[in-house]
Design a protein that fits this description.
single chain; mainly alpha; 5 helices
Length: 149
């Protein structure tokens, strides 16, 4: 499994991120590219303990099962549902969002497992360092594939 804790894998994600332009169009989904970049910052901020979201009942009931699916090597499916807190519908500045996302990716990589929050994920609950890492890499990969990079 690829790891965002690995500097080379992190750089690979940032290289893909740098292929996006303000005019990049999604292959699926409703977000434009700037909205997607803003959306991708949420999980990283949660993992780093910079943001918190209250646990939801559906996550408490089904999060453990879903977490087991998360670590499988398959990429995320297209058009998965998004938690309402992570939906971005307002207009965003492409350059600003891209720079902020790249900075968060670098912070996650440099902080390593020690930089992760002790708090549970709002949907998946308590997660291991590996699960946090896999979630971040697969989420970023999913949205970069959404925009063809």
């Amino acid at each position: 499994m690829k790891s965002l804790f690995s500097p080379s894998e992190s750089q690979h994600i940032i290289s893909r991120l740098n292929k996006l332009t303000a005019d990049s169009k999604p292959l699926w989904g409703k977000m434009n590219v700037a909205q997607m970049l803003a959306h991708c910052q949420w999980p990283l901020r949660i993992a780093l303990g910079e943001q918190s979201v209250k646990r939801v009942l559906v996550g408490i009931l089904f999060g453990g099962f879903a977490r087991k699916q998360l670590v499988k090597p398959e990429p995320f499916r297209k058009s998965l549902p998004t938690a309402k807190e992570f939906v971005v519908t307002d207009q965003r500045d492409f350059v600003k969002e891209k720079l902020q996302l790249a900075a968060l990716i670098e912070k996650f990589t440099k902080g390593g497992p020690e930089g992760l929050t002790e708090d549970p994920h709002p949907f998946f609950g308590r997660m291991t360092e590996q699960e946090w890492d896999v979630l971040q890499w697969k989420h970023l990969d999913h949205h970069l594939r959404q925009f063809g990079v």
